[in-house]
Write a structure and sequence with these properties.
The chain is an alpha/beta fold. The chain has 2 domains: about 190 residues, Isopropylmalate Dehydrogenase; about 140 residues, Isopropylmalate Dehydrogenase, CATH 3.40.718.10. The chain is built from 13 helices and 12 strands. It is globular.
């Protein structure tokens, strides 16, 4: 088997169940390399609470250097109960903001699809979620999360929201470009009836939209969007929104898929290096018990193959393997009712590898 020039993948498992699910995603990527003749080099580094334990920093310089030198970053989850004080100056979650900023990752992509076999896992009616296929495009490096917070004594606190034309233009072009290859519709979500940032957002999105005449554009206020996402989720194709609104909406979409354990994400920028992760957190309450669902991390690995390495066929093979496992009725604990039989984290990862291998006829 001829091997092409290798790809270096920075692996940042992080905290809690991040370590368990990323281990399975890494195994799947290694099997892809074996089956399709790619040389993947996996380089591990600390991030989040684990990094704070070892170095006092959530994002050590050695970790950042590795990520910058790699072709892609596979990220688990950050957060540890001992660092839960929201008033602390240093917290595990700061690693995510730092990576996005330092790597220039300005857009987060969160695809949401309802596998027919999981329609019963959603709290919504099966007929409402069957056929859902949308993607949330969230701006990542602007907005209130990167504003100028200040506390004025014990009675007043201030956060600022800032957006520039350039920040809105680049993420809007990304969203419209994705819509061209999908069903041709962009829904831009803002709060233009109240916020000056949102009025600029809407103006710039309108201007960008005019350069994509074959794409339908609609605007929704964030409060209406949260309602319509539950009432009529099949109407959405590409949802374009800012940092904070995207954070909220993309977590809401986990209800559509039946579990946060099913949803991957990609953070991308102008360069080839992207960061790929499941949308769920570190879930310390179930860590180490084999209860975590690795499918979101495995599907994030598929996004890594597609967006950073340009390996579309391999990405589709991983996604097809996940679909095969679900069709066969295999479920982790989050996708079953309490007390029902389920497979462990490692067993689910092994099943995906078996399906991937069977597809290839090996």
């Amino acid at each position: 088997m001829n091997r092409e020039t290798g790809h270096t993948i920075a692996v940042l498992p992080g905290d809690g169940i991040g370590r368990e699910v990323i281990a399975e995603a890494e195994k799947v990527l290694a099997q892809v390399g074996e089956l399709y003749g790619h040389a993947f080099a996996f380089e591990h580094a600390l991030v989040g609470g684990a990094a704070m334990d070892a170095t006092g920093e959530p994002l050590p310089q050695s970790t950042l250097r590795l990520c910058k030198a790699s072709d892609a970053v596979l990220f688990g989850a950050v957060g540890d109960p001992k660092y839960d004080d929201p008033g602390a100056k240093v917290r595990p979650e700061q690693a995510l903001l730092g990576l996005r900023q330092k790597l220039g990752l300005y857009a987060n992509l969160r695809p949401v699809w309802m596998h027919p076999a999981l329609a019963g896992a959603s709290p919504l009616r099966p007929e409402d979620v069957t056929g859902v296929d949308l993607i949330v495009v969230r701006e990542l490096t602007g907005g209130i999360y990167f504003g100028r917070p200040r506390v004025e004594g014990a009675e007043r606190a201030v956060d600022t929201m800032i957006y520039t034309r350039e920040e809105v233009e680049r993420v809007a072009h990304l969203a419209f470009g994705m819509a061209v290859g999908r069903r041709g519709k962009v829904t831009s979500v803002d709060k233009a009836n109240v916020l000056a940032c949102s009025r600029l957002w809407r103006q710039v999105v309108d201007e960008v939209g005019r350069t994509y005449p074959d794409v339908q554009l609609e605007h929704l206020l964030i409060d209406a969007a949260t309602m319509h996402l539950i009432k009529r989720p099949r109407d959405f194709d590409v949802i374009l929104t800012g940092n904070m609104f995207g954070d909220i909406l993309s977590d809401e979409t986990s209800v559509l898929a039946g579990s946060m354990g099913m949803l991957p994400s990609a953070s991308i920028g102008q360069g080839q290096v992207g960061m790929y992760e499941p949308i769920h957190g570190s879930a310390p309450d179930i860590a180490g018990q084999g209860l975590a669902n690795p499918l979101a991390a495995i599907l994030a690995a598929a996004m890594l193959l597609r967006h950073s390495l340009g390996l579309e066929a391999e990405a589709r093979a991983v996604e097809a393997a996940v679909a095969h496992v679900l069709d066969a009725g295999h479920r982790t604990a989050d996708l079953t009712s309490e007390g029902s039989p389920h497979v462990t984290t490692q067993q689910m990862g092994g099943l995906v590898i078996d399906a991937l291998t069977a597809q290839k006829g090996v």
